[in-house]
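User: Modeling request: complex.
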Amino acid sequence: MEEGAVYSQHVTQSADAYAIIHEKFGDAVSAFDANETMPFFEVIDLAQWQNIALFMRDHPKLRFNYMACLSGVDYQAEGKVGIVCNLESLGELNHRIAVKLKCDRTGGSIPSVSCVWHTANWHEREAYDMYGMTFSGHPDMRRILCPDDWEGFPLLKDYKVQETYHGVKVPF
Amino acid sequence: MQELDKAGQGSIRVTRKSANVVVLEKDLATEQMVLAMGPQHPSTHGVLKLECLTDGEVVTEAEPYLGYLHRCFEKHCENVDYPGIVPYTDRMDYLAGMNSEFAFCVAVEKLLDIEIPRRVEFIRVLVAELNRIASHLVAIGTYAIDLGAFTPFLFCFRDREHILGLLEWASGARMLYNYIWVGGLAYDAPADFPKRVQEFVDYFKPKTRELFRLLTENEIFVKRTKGVGIMPADVAINYGWSGPMLRGSGVKWDLRRNDPYSIYPELDFDIPVPDGKFSEIGDSLSRHLVRALEMEESLKIIEQCLEKMPSSEGFDPRAAIPKRIRPKAGEVYGRAENPRGELGFYIMSDGKSTKPLRCKARSSCFVNLSAMKDLSRGQLIPDLVAIIGSIDIVLGEVDR
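Assistant: Request completed. Predicted assembly structure:
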């Protein structure tokens, strides 16, 4: 956070939560991005993600018990794909924070947190379906919205739709 | 305790431990059967497929299969500008189009950081609450049909028709409105609109009580839903449940109060949660009860909106709409309370384009439905129908 800048209450709450996480995990997490619309930090050491998630859910001063959303994102310029998790302490401490993770565009893998928040189960399947990154440790890593034998990952920026699907012409 | 004897194959004891836990004890394993419910099945409320592994009448495992109605909402969003996305959001949750538009506009306006005229806000809340009632009427009506009661369905659809008529008058469409725009509204409300809405409120108030007598307090209905599909509060939160589903589990959580947007902080309304006297907390009946009670709260909000709404003199519903909607570079997660729960939009803008770089819709039904596998374990097949109905899914929003 910048010196002298004025932040609204929900950003300072997120910053306080981040400070606890940073103290515990140090360099595994990036610096805190204190913007007004969606304050976030990034997990740099992907291997730590499950530990960070569990810590965030169970620490008495964090209690992020609710995963509101998990979205896949294509960072084409960086050659990466990633996810953004919006977390919240529902009914307990009422603070929010977003967490970002990035992995390689082809064959990238992120540890699954579906054992920490059940919400992540279907959302991770959707991220895999649309962007192609896998989630290691996920109990049921299949496509969810597209058919199982669909080719390619539709939400990648350079996606080319397949010509035919089971003999039916796809683009119209 | 019930004992089933299959000639010469040993016996199976079916014990009902509590209302929703059935225990099978068997001397010899029965043959498990795969039963596909859907994608064309009246009780799945659309094109949802449930592949159930059944042991006699008991479902041991039910796996939902989605995607039959996938229309690439998120891919489309990356190719149209912000005002062009609004009609697509209508087609997600087609039973509550106004609420979907509202949620999307709340998210984009958060990123744009613009001031919305007060009358616009009041009209938005007014139409969104009308649509919430219409949506709950469909939910309750179709739930009654699932459980074998036909009359409440007809009553609900009769009353819903009045709301659709009002919304058609305001927007020009019955279900897919494109009425709430980013920064404003498509049109001002018609001159006599508040009067007609007041007439509807006066008409509908006694009808909510009628619905209670007809369905909610109906002995057969209560027997079918009480204690079926119980979801404890902490598990519900871990599954990411929201809206009437979460409130049915006894958590007093409503985004209109807990993450307020628009003019909701100025309005006075209650958040109904079950107290455990009439239903068991977290069961299907609780979820139905929350919806039924919420309609009365929506009526309260509508009346307050009519009372406090600024006059239409010199009002231009499109005055605050930016010439070109091009948010600054950044991300936002904006959300609103839909009839089915938290509808959120994660929007990413690069600051240069009039199209979003990424627009993800966090669908409430999608998240609520993900608990189906846990809820269905060990249930009887008719109870499975009662559980699916209580989740109140709209497949347009699940699949997007």
